[in-house]
Design brief:
mainly alpha, 3-stranded parallel β-sheet, 5 strands, globular, 8% strand, single chain, 9 helices
């Protein structure tokens, strides 16, 4: 499950070299179902035109699709950068007690539970959002008074309760604010052409981290 970073829509990407395609190739995986759509979030905004065309991860249709492809050995989820900033960024992060699907806390708990209900025998991995250099440094969204690290920390905290294995691409991928930034061509070689979506070199960095973490658990 993913957003635009898991699609082939941005960065003039070389076919077959998206992070999940590399993982599929390296491990000779013959059957991989992918649900990735640009602009989507984990949380839900019910009844809006944008929600209809860009259903969140906890949209009933997307949740119902979980389990439509048998019982996989593992699942990968890579999302929440749009919960932080974008057309449907969350108004506030919420609190650990929240159960509303419009709250990041509540939506994340619902999504994690739905994964286990759909795929009880699978191992579930959540990849944290990577740095984005389109929001200033440090990475802050003044519209909702959130830093991106707060989204990352929330994912880690809630994942512990549901046995979700977190792959910390924010901290451990080698992708940073500086090498995602295209401003003044600094650094000279960037992992992004728009300061948000990684190009193939960025996808390779992510794929190596994710693959190493997968191999640790299988």
């Amino acid at each position: 499950m993913g957003d635009s970073i898991s699609t082939t829509d941005y960065g003039a990407l070389v076919p077959g070299e998206i992070y999940w395609q590399l993982i599929q190739s390296w491990n000779n995986i013959t059957d991989m179902a992918v649900s990735a759509q640009s602009g989507t979030t984990v949380h839900l905004t019910v009844g809006t035109a944008y929600e209809i065309s860009h259903p969140g991860f906890v949209d009933s249709t997307r949740l119902a699709a979980l389990g439509a492809n048998g019982q996989p050995g593992f699942t990968l989820t890579f999302g929440a950068t749009n919960d932080f900033k974008g057309v449907r960024a969350i108004a506030s992060i919420g609190s650990p007690a929240d159960t509303s699907l419009s709250s990041f806390y509540g939506a994340l708990k619902c999504y994690f539970l739905s994964l286990w209900q759909a795929y009880p025998k699978a191992k579930h991995f959540y990849i944290t959002p990577i740095y984005r250099a389109d929001s200033g440094f440090p990475i802050y969204n003044s519209a909702n008074s959130l830093y991106l690290y707060q989204i990352v920390d929330t994912i880690k905290m809630i994942a512990k309760d549901y046995g979700i294995i977190v792959i910390d691409a924010y901290q451990d991928s080698g992708i940073t604010y500086l090498n995602m930034s295209t401003a003044n061509n600094t650094p000279a070689v960037s992992y992004s052409t728009d300061s948000l979506h990684p190009i193939n070199t960025g996808h390779l960095k992510m794929a190596k981290l994710i693959n190493n973490q997968l191999l640790k658990h299988f």
